[in-house]
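INPUT
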Amino acid sequence: MVASISDVAKLAGVSKSTVSLVCNNKGYVSPETREKIERAMAELNYTPSALGQNLKLRRSGIIGIIVPDISHPFFSTFLKYAEKSLYRRGYKTMVCGTAGRQDVEEAYLQMLERRTMDGIIMGAHSQKVERYLRTNRPIVALDRFLSEDIPVVRSNKAQIAELAAGLLLKRGRRHIAQLVSSYTVPNFELEKDETFVRLMAQGGAEVTDVSVGYNAFTEEQYALAAQRLFRRCPNVDGIVGTDMAVLACMAEAHRRGLRVPEQISMVAIDGTYVTRIGEMTLTAIVQPMEAMAEQAVDLVLQLLEEGAERPASPALEVTVQEGESC
Amino acid sequence: MVASISDVAKLAGVSKSTVSLVCNNKGYVSPETREKIERAMAELNYTPSALGQNLKLRRSGIIGIIVPDISHPFFSTFLKYAEKSLYRRGYKTMVCGTAGRQDVEEAYLQMLERRTMDGIIMGAHSQKVERYLRTNRPIVALDRFLSEDIPVVRSNKAQIAELAAGLLLKRGRRHIAQLVSSYTVPNFELEKDETFVRLMAQGGAEVTDVSVGYNAFTEEQYALAAQRLFRRCPNVDGIVGTDMAVLACMAEAHRRGLRVPEQISMVAIDGTYVTRIGEMTLTAIVQPMEAMAEQAVDLVLQLLEEGAERPASPALEVTVQEGESC
DNA sequence: ATGAAAGCGCTAACAG
DNA sequence: CTGTTAGCGCTTTCAT
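OUTPUT
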């Protein structure tokens, strides 16, 4: 059996409340009593149970982070920084990869209501929006619009489009393919993709959208999208898309004997570590992952600890990674 | 205020236990009573609190997974499959990236004792081994030896060494550099590295060890190791190391105008997705990540649910990924 | 400075 | 089939 606070109190000959004071370094306890209690704790090898604490304090100290795919470089990088930030602020991180399954997302929303978690950072998006409004517990959205009342973490989409367009136009590219995701939930991708098309048109280039598919985050899906792209745009000379999508296009271009960046330019959006580990560093628009993670944590804790109504969350600025692919 | 089970009981005019039965679909409840209770639950928008449940049941339903770096492809892939497996078996996943800090690892071991988690899968390794013996709560080690009593998940190291040696010898490589980690805790790397050296010697090749460093998982550390490698082994014609280390060597070779695989062969050990996303698919020894994750989950739940003493855990077999780098 | 008592929300004998 | 009772382990007034 493992010792409880009552066992310690009994052995030390004091009351539970005094033991509690010692455990939490609160109030005033005489040196002698403290000494007795500490001896008893040591003897019984006592560790306070978080379960009792949690019930009493009505909190778990856990924030859940829900993403479509835990191993995807974008999400795993976000997770890394978010966990770090949460840990620093005294919280633990629960993680969930939905792999696009609605029921999993729903299950985690229920856990939020059941107080398994104190708050959620939502990076997946298969649920209908109304679902999120049914609860008024702390939720923050990552790069997607859920409702007016749910704060969202995002980078500056217009800036991304401008920078990407600038890079390709500077190289004189005119036949562009843009790898886009299927828009199931209003997210900010659409804004970015449309702005990009408009800017390229102004520069005299035409853009063809190629869909990567719905909730597509696997290597195979990216590879298939790349094949579709080259089949559909035989004379493509510029490609823009997320890191993984562009990398798949690099492989496909290589297979087809097309040289990058001589014959075809590629700009990766996200700029996670995978753009820096190959023979060639990709030219990329880099999302500020650590800042995004910290903003997300900050927002969810503002909702939780300060009961903030609609905390502000400015779009974060991106930067260009000068690479060799454009 | 949020409704508790007592509120529901009161409104429905029944006792708490009956409400509990309905919630958990246990025992027999008359249709009429059930009906009344369900109506009350709906009216109060009742959701059972996990905090009360947890205290009563003395469990949290959470398994912690501790790794050095959440975004590293090996660990993020492991995490993805482990979370999936845990979810399927009714558990939630808490995640922690230690970034090599002992105090973080210690903090999570304490949480295990405080019952924040029901068990731990330990993929990091900065603590002294004795620390793990102080607790008899469920712990499983990932690819490292902690003690006789702690089950370990690992792949067949001898097989890895044999396959890697075979690949390089078949290409006639004689000047090999092996990227190794610093050995702080007895893990199975050492066994693999030594076997590899022996096999290569039998084949008439010499092997130089190049250390990546202690707890080295960042891009910069890999890049520096690659530079050291080429400086120290100017006539190297074969390299073996983990995915990320080998990728850094690919970049460095490219910078030095060395062609892979014509002048130099590379074999990546791990074979995670990063070996398949560049222009070139790397020749790799592939660890069975999903099987490793499932074995880890299985072991930790055997310890937890069945109180197993020393559950068996056979080393898992690896496979070769035929690539273009060797 | 310390103790008594109440209660967080739930489950599980056991009785009826 | 349902209610009573007891308690999981902790914190927190409020007295003393």
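end of record. The first helix of chain A runs from residue 5 to 12.
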